[in-house]
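#lab-general

N.A. 3:47 PM
ok so I finally got the sequence cleaned up, no stray characters, all 212 residues accounted for. can someone with queue access submit it? mine expired

B.Y. 3:52 PM
send it over

N.A. 3:53 PM
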Amino acid sequence: MENKKNVIIIILTIVDSLLFLLGISFWLSFSMVSRCGHSGMISALFALRRFESLVILILVVIIAFWILSFIKRDREKFKIIRIITMIYLAISLILIIIGIVFVGSYYGSTTCATKVAIKADLAGLGLRDSANRYAENNDNSYEGFCNNSEDVALVAENIEKNKSKLYCNDSLEKWAVCANHDKAEYSCVDSGGNFKVKDGVCDENWNYTSCP
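B.Y. 4:20 PM
back already:
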């Protein structure tokens, strides 16, 4: 019976150690990511890891309490395991508290990822190439480009997935598209090769054919 208990304690300690290292690695990888400094996919991934690390560290705390309850009567015998477990427990609790207090960081990173994704959709070469092909096939005119281009429809669909909306205007010689990042900022791309981030709102009243 005593041997069985020893084996259980050792197994729990190993599992706790592995979970602790995993939780710390997730936490550190999130902390090293600067907001808006990476692609939307990477930003979203590391934002998600903040929650994953919290879940893992909570498991570390639960297992640590379980280990301490097992060795309660044999503290001297399991002195090293007790010290290691207490260290895991203390660090995990501190990080869990920090994570809960600053849980808004996830939403900030998600917003950032959305912003980067919208910029990437607008700044891609697809719209410009599509517009040039459209003009070549329509007497060097951009009129009708917004309503008849599959690429515009595709970009609009992608932007809608990021809770925004694409607005597109065209004329004989020019075209421009825009999409909001939030309530006070939007990105704009036009036929002149401009890509701008502007303060303000892009909506149905935005009637430019070149970025303002």
